[in-house]
Write a structure and sequence with these properties.
Blueprint: E1 5-9, H1 15-24, E2 28-32, H2 36-59, H3 65-77, E3 79-82, E4 93-96, H4 102-115, E5 121-124, H5 131-138, E6 144-149, E7 158-163, H6 169-181, E8 185-190, H7 197-214, H8 219-230, H9 236-243, H10 245-258, H11 269-276, E9 291-292, E10 295-296
Parallel strand pairs: 1-2, 1-4, 2-3, 4-5, 5-6, 7-8
Antiparallel strand pairs: 6-7, 9-10
Helix pairs in contact: 1-2, 2-3, 4-5, 7-9, 10-11
The structure holds acetoacetyl-coenzyme A and nicotinamide-adenine-dinucleotide.
Acetoacetyl-coenzyme A binds next to helix 2, helix 7 and helix 9.
Length: 297
């Protein structure tokens, strides 16, 4: 089961990175978005990131200037942008990276099931929803996996490959091999809430937000404590701003609806408030910190 042509649906924070690593791994990639504006924004981010990698490779003496330019152009050349779901008709694998809303994902997969070739593999990058529910909506549950990449996709080395009870063994193996071809280290997971990473990480972020809401420590001190005390690359409040407060809230709302008695998933007040005010983190310039590009205050 060889994956040569890949579709990625959603070209936002995660999707643009998945398009890029898939193309850098040698695949032809169709990058699909809702409208031309969102598509142009996603492709712009990819071009900026490719230029960054190219200049880093030159600085490190790994490539000449000409080789680096040619590499970036070759990767970009494998990407075909589209706003039509029908452009995915001949893809061997389609990875969905649209908003964390189960009803929207299910209706997307139902539409995709009717448009993609019968043996195509479908994957969701969901952070938290049951993969089996999207698999059922797609009409091809045995050819469905979770492929959970991490933010920023270009730099994070993990991908979780999630199998349901119905996932075909060969499909799981092909999805794992695709993750490796994208330069990632895959880990296999069952279809449990948050798989491995988010089941541990999201309750930790919740505890940090609750600590801030109670006034136990300042945001800077909470972040510094976890960076210097535990060796984490960034503190939990900075990380929440990176992930997106809307995405974090959607994950928690999904879990509290299914597991109302689990205190690990209790939603902090400030998270709801900030999302209702449109303060979604780094992507809107305001979350637990204020952001100007990479600079926070
Ligand atoms: N493209 C290309 N190059 C990039 C880039 C991009 N998109 N972003 C950064 N770089 C480059 C930088 O230019 C830099 O280059 P130099 O070394 O030449 O300066 C290099 O990559 C490293 O970047 P930074 O200086 O910003 O590096 P850092 O050491 O601060 O690391 C980080 C950044 C990898 C993001 C690190 O802070 C980190 O690992 N943070 C934690 C991230 C994390 O936990 N992610 C998981 C979130 S949870 C999730 O994703 C799951 C979910 O479902 C919610
Ligand atoms: P985002 O809001 O940055 O991007 C979502 C993109 O999907 C938007 O650009 C939107 O226009 C597009 N979109 C929505 N519906 C679409 C459709 N029907 N067809 C095509 N495009 C559509 O969100 P994100 O942070 O990239 O999250 C995407 C998915 O990845 C979510 O399921 C999220 O839980 C998951 N995820 C997020 C992170 C994170 O750190 N943010 C990490 C891992 C996984």
């Amino acid at each position: 089961m060889k994956i040569e042509k890949v579709g990625v649906v959603g070209c936002g924070l995660m999707g643009h990175g998945i398009v890029q690593v898939a193309a850098a791994g040698g695949h032809q990639v169709v990058a699909c978005e809702l409208d031309q504006g969102a598509l142009d924004k996603g492709i712009g981010r990819i071009e900026k990131s490719l230029a960054k990698f190219a200049s880093k490779n030159v600085e490190k003496g790994k490539m000449s200037e000409d080789e680096a330019q040619a590499w970036a152009a070759e990767v970009r050349g494998r990407i075909t942008p589209s706003t039509e779901v029908t452009a995915l008709h001949d893809c061997d694998l389609v990875v969905e990276a649209i908003v964390e809303n189960l009803d929207i994902k299910k209706s997307f997969f139902a539409e995709l099931g009717a448009n993609a070739k019968p043996d195509a593999i479908f994957a969701s990058n969901t952070s938290s929803f049951p993969v089996r529910e999207m698999a059922a909506a797609s009409g091809r549950p045995e050819r469905f996996v979770g492929l959970h990449f991490f933010n920023p996709v270009q730099l994070m080395r993990l991908v979780e490959v999630v199998r349901t009870d119905e996932t075909d063994e060969e499909v799981f193996a092909a999805a794992r091999a695709f993750g490796e071809a994208c330069g990632k280290s895959p880990v296999g997971c069952k279809d449990t809430p948050g798989f491995v990473v988010n089941r541990l990480l999201v309750p930790y972020m919740v505890q940090a937000i609750s600590m801030l809401d109670r006034g136990d420590a300042s945001k800077e001190d909470i972040d510094t404590a976890m960076q210097l005390g535990c060796g984490y690359p960034m503190g939990p409040l900075t990380l929440t701003d990176y992930v997106g407060l809307d995405t974090t809230l959607s994950i928690l709302e999904g879990w509290t609806a299914r597991y109302p008695d689990d205190p690990a998933f209790a939603i902090p007040e400030s998270l709801r408030l900030k999302v209702s005010e449109g303060k979604l983190g780094r992507k809107t310039g305001e979350g637990y910190y204020s952001w100007e590009g990479d600079k926070k205050s």
